[in-house]
Design a protein that fits this description.
Length: 127
């Protein structure tokens, strides 16, 4: 069984790769969706939930490719067996201009493929 430090490190690595993928040019939608569990959910305030890898892939295909940068900081990671939660601050830049800041709340599950996002919620600080 991994130590708490190993689990936290694996979760930080997953989130860093998740962000690097969404910010890549070109954005590889299937790779981005692969960071989620098969039935993973992405929730944004005021929008319908995006559920499952197929829907997540379709959503990622609508995002602009390149020119977007997400910076995630202040990770608060709690691990309880094969489930973990993470709260983090997210700052978004688009074409070199600050675009948004908010909080991401994640629930993750340990799978045979490592940690995967079961649910990610993003709530902007203001609109």
């Amino acid at each position: 069984m991994p130590t708490l430090a190993e689990d936290r490190d694996a979760i930080r690595d997953l989130l860093s790769r998740y962000i690097a993928t969404v910010d890549s040019n070109p954005l590889i939608a299937e790779e981005w969706a692969g960071f989620y569990a098969e039935d993973g959910k992405f929730l944004q305030e005021g929008k319908d939930p995006i559920v499952g890898r197929e829907a997540l892939t379709a959503f990622a295909e609508t995002l602009p490719s390149g020119g977007m940068r997400h910076i995630i900081t202040d990770h608060i990671i709690d691990v309880d067996g094969d489930t973990a939660t993470c709260e983090a601050t997210v700052t978004v830049w688009v074409q070199g201009q600050w675009a948004a800041i908010g909080r991401a709340s994640d629930v993750m599950h340990r799978t045979a493929d490592g940690w995967r996002i079961a649910q990610r919620s993003y709530v902007p600080d203001f609109q």
